[in-house]
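Justification of computing resources. Each target in the renewal requires a structure prediction run like the one illustrated here; the chain below, 163 residues long, is used simply to show the kind of job we budget for.
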Amino acid sequence: MQQPTWQVNTHQQTWHVRWHPADSESAGKAHGSAGICLTPERQIVVVSQNGIDWDVPAGRSEAGESWAATLQRELAEEACAMVQSASLLGFCQSQCLAGAEQGLILVRAFWLAQVTIQAWQPQFEMIERRLIEPKEIWGYLPQAYLPIYRHVLQVASLFIEVD
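Resulting structure tokens:
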């Protein structure tokens, strides 16, 4: 089965992004994990470094860290959220076609995580966290990545309509 692909232009670079299902991790440099995080009330967790630009919690792997361990650590650090359970949705393999990192191939794991929210005490770059209703998600995701997130949310069976 042909997997979806996208072209993303961001930070003066052009990337070719290919989706790989959870059972077929792709080759490339591990670039961490991202989590679509649901609270028990079925709200989605989003975070911001500046109070203007928002995204789901995500971050890079540390040396020797598994995809799942990266997810758990990043959600604790960025969103002050504890993972109760997580399902690997798949991987995005991104190859830089043009720009400063031309030729670089990165792989990021995407997860659907059930989380509990802790007191807001972020450890690093995030300055704000919000719990939003699923239908609000499209106003909180980076525009350049919307087609990818649309696919990720479909794989997660979170069919959230665009307003």
